[in-house]
Amino acid sequence: MPVWFLGLALIAVASPAIAANKPAWLTDVSATVRESYDDNLYLSGVNAQYLPATYALPGGSVAALKNKSSSVTTVAPKLGVSFLPWTGTNFFSQCSLTYAPEFTIYQDAGSETHYDHRFTAKLKGQTDNWNFNFDESFLYVDGSKVAPTYPGNLVTAYNTVAPRERRDQTQDRASLIAQRNWESWFIRPSASLVYYDLHTLQFNSPGYQNYATRYDAHGGVDLGYKLSANHALTLGSQIGHQGQEKFSFGTYESSSDFVRLLGGAEGKLAAWLTYKFQAGPDLRYYDAAAPVSARHKLTYYDEGSFTAKLSDRDTLTLDGRQFQWVSCLGSVPYFDTTASLTWHHRCTEAFALDFGGKYLIADYRSGGLPPCQRVDTEYCLTTGLSYAVTRHLAFSLGAEIDFGRNALQVIPDPASTRDFHRVLITAGTTWQF
Question: Is domain 25-432 given the CATH code 2.40.160 in the classification?
Answer without folding.
Answer: yes
